[in-house]
Structures are given as structure tokens and as C-alpha cells.
Specification:
Length: 237
């Protein structure tokens, strides 16, 4: 058994996990980023390695060190993350997109540091930053798989309930829209999830199985529950 008391049920499996928040540069010293700590994705990579998998972690910005026994590929932007995930997914048995991918990036990158102007006639002058859409990496991985059933593809969604639906309803709609096999939905809000060590999620499945709740528990325990759901769905080796 591994440290969590589970058998090496992922032995021989190739696992590809993305984690952390992408950073979209404006100039050599500035970027647009997000509050993802990367903790849940890193915990998933560590748990999979402990259960015998061969793990590659494609890591954008994270607050936590990469686990030992895991191959780590560092990226900064959504476009870099897309290139690494797209190249590696065909060799994987399962792909987990736990990274917080910026939906938008600055339309222009300035090669030199953006400076204030010093025009006495317009002392409050400020630039306007135009944004463009980043590609949807997860949807691209699903489309690139074509009719094949491998790799199994797992998405993440951070949702808040609102007037148009509950957290689970938004999650179900996102699962359909993305076309992935499983979607891990976590509830976010002030003080919830971002940077915290505990998490509460529901694992939604497209195969009609009931949502599997997990937590509140440590991100490591949540990770093990996610692998418990993934394991039996992997095509036999
Ligand atoms: N994702 C991705 N590429 C993007 C944005 C998101 O691959 N450009 C992935 C995330 O890694 C996650 C899943 O898609 O696994 C859902 O991310 P989320 O931000 O919740 O979904 P969006 O489609 O961006 O929808 P929203 O407008 O609610 O942010
Ligand atoms: Ca998004």
C-alpha cells in the first residue's frame, strides 16, 4: 500500500496533470495573473505518484513545491501550457486540467517596460489594456482526442451559485459544454478554496453516475477521492 493506505492501483498508468495559475505578460516586468495556489493540482500529482503512476506535472505559477518522484515542466502563459499539454496528452492514460487558465491575455506585449508619460497637460494619462481570448485548452484536448476514448480527460470548475443556478447546475452545464469525462466542481467565494489547505468538491461524470462529494477535507484527501473515481474508468492496460 502507498502512504495513504491504498494499493498501487495506478501502477503503470501515465498521468498528466496541469496546476497553478497562468501569468499573461504585459511587459518584461508585469503580468495579469490569478489567485490559484496550485495546491490541489500538486496534491493530485503527488497522490497519483504514491499510487504507482508515472506522473508529469505541467506547472504554471504555484505557491507550493513540486512533489518528489514527479516529472515537472514549468510554464508561464496559457499558450505555453496549451503547447505542453497538447504535445503530451496523446501519451497519457488520463489528463487532469487543474490549472487556472487565464481566459484572456493582453493583446499586445511591450518589449520594454511600460513607462508613465510626464505631460503637464495630462497628468492622469493612463494606458488602456486591450485583452484577447486565450484558447480553451481543455476543449481542445477533448476535440484532439477525436473518437478515441483515451486519454480520460478530467476538468476542474470553480463555481459560485447565483440566480441562474446552483453550483452543481453550473457544473453540469460546464461538463456538457467542455465534453470532458469528469468534472471536479468546487465552490469558490470569499475565503473559500483559493490558497486554503482544505477543499470541498463534487466529482461529476458524463457516464451518468451520481456526483461523488468529497470534503471538506485536505487537498490530498480530495485528490485521493478523485483518483478513486478515475481509476476504474481507465481503459484496461
Ligand atoms: N480551461 C482551459 N482553458 C481555458 C480556460 C479554462 O483549459 N482557456 C480549463 C480549466 O483548466 C478547467 C476548466 O477548463 O479545467 C474549467 O475552467 P473554468 O474557468 O471554470 O471554465 P471556463 O470555460 O473558462 O468558464 P468561465 O467563463 O466560467 O470561467
Ligand atoms: Ca475561466
Amino acid at each position: 500500500d502507498g502512504p495513504a493506505g491504498r494499493a498501487a492501483d495506478l501502477a503503470g498508468r501515465r498521468v498528466l496533470v496541469s496546476a497553478g495559475g497562468t501569468r499573461e505578460p504585459l511587459d518584461p516586468v508585469r503580468y495579469l495573473g490569478n489567485r490559484s495556489s496550485g495546491k490541489q493540482g500538486v496534491a493530485l500529482a503527488a497522490a497519483a505518484a504514491d499510487r504507482g503512476a508515472e506522473v508529469t506535472l505541467v506547472a504554471a505559477s504555484t505557491d507550493v513545491p513540486a512533489p518528489v518522484g514527479v516529472e515537472v515542466v514549468r510554464v508561464e502563459t496559457a499558450l505555453e501550457l496549451q503547447a505542453e499539454m497538447t504535445a503530451r496528452a496523446p501519451q497519457a492514460d488520463v489528463v487532469v486540467m487543474a490549472a487556472a487558465v487565464a481566459d484572456f491575455r493582453p493583446a499586445e506585449y511591450a518589449d520594454a517596460k511600460i513607462k508613465k508619460t510626464h505631460d503637464p497637460a495630462d497628468p492622469d494619462a493612463a494606458p488602456t489594456i486591450r485583452l484577447v481570448r486565450n484558447p480553451d485548452i481543455l476543449a481542445g484536448l477533448v476535440a484532439g482526442r477525436g473518437a478515441a476514448t483515451a486519454p480520460l480527460i478530467v476538468g476542474f470548475a470553480a463555481e459560485t451559485g447565483d440566480a441562474s443556478g446552483s453550483v452543481l447546475e453550473h457544473g453540469r452545464a460546464k461538463l456538457e459544454r467542455k465534453g470532458c469525462d469528469l468534472l471536479v466542481v468546487n465552490e469558490v467565494g470569499v475565503g473559500k478554496t483559493f490558497g486554503q489547505d482544505t477543499n470541498m468538491v463534487h466529482v461529476l461524470s458524463r457516464d451518468g453516475a451520481a456526483p461523488v462529494p468529497a470534503g471538506p477535507a485536505s487537498k490530498r484527501e480530495i485528490a485521493d477521492t478523485i483518483w478513486d473515481v478515475v481509476g476504474p474508468r481507465l481503459v484496461s492496460a
